[in-house]
Hints:
With 192 residues, this protein is an alpha+beta fold. It is built from eight helices and six strands; from the N terminus they run H-H-E-E-E-E-E-E-H-H-H-H-H-H. It has a six-stranded antiparallel sheet with strand order 1-2-3-4-6-5. A hairpin with a 2-residue loop joins strand 2 and strand 3. Helix 5 packs across helix 6 and helix 7 packs antiparallel against helix 8. The chain is elongated, with a radius of gyration of 20 Å.
Amino acid sequence: MNPKVDWYFEKNEKWQSAIKKLRTIILDCGLNEELKWGCPCYMFENSNIVLIHVFKEYCAVLFFKGALLSDANDMLVQQTKNVQAARQMRFTSAKEVTEMERILKTYIYEAIEVEKAGMKVKLKKTTEFSMPEEFQKRLTKNAALKKAFHALTPGRQRGYLLYFSAAKQSKTREARIEKYLKPILTGKGLND
């Protein structure tokens, strides 16, 4: 147990007993505990394997390369359609964690084997993400914007495309695009 992570298990009263049990199970699998993204992260030879995180309705173990796991028990959940590699195993009580311990360990050991084998999730290319019509028109009309957008890293490009596309109304997409023209032109990502 890494003392830098202890605070995480004390702060959330609703899920405290469940996440403490998850911590014990994961550490029993021989992984190293670190704090990453404000959450307990468990690693094998400096590679992220799983992360514990909490939500309003459940707590979860996130498998970084969950898409590569066999999921024999149909336990893994893809958070949203845009999540490519990670998958969650969700829990709603400490009792459920205890009941699922054997299965959870099986998934963790498989995730370690995936990492040992050097397997990689084949990620979609940025060009495979949908381009909102409103943004495509802007790129067509503004060569500087087009050049700046294509100079961004693929991750930053995807961030913008997903954010712009998420708006249901054209008016909202237009407003989002307008708001981020300057950051795009200055080479910044959505959250920079």
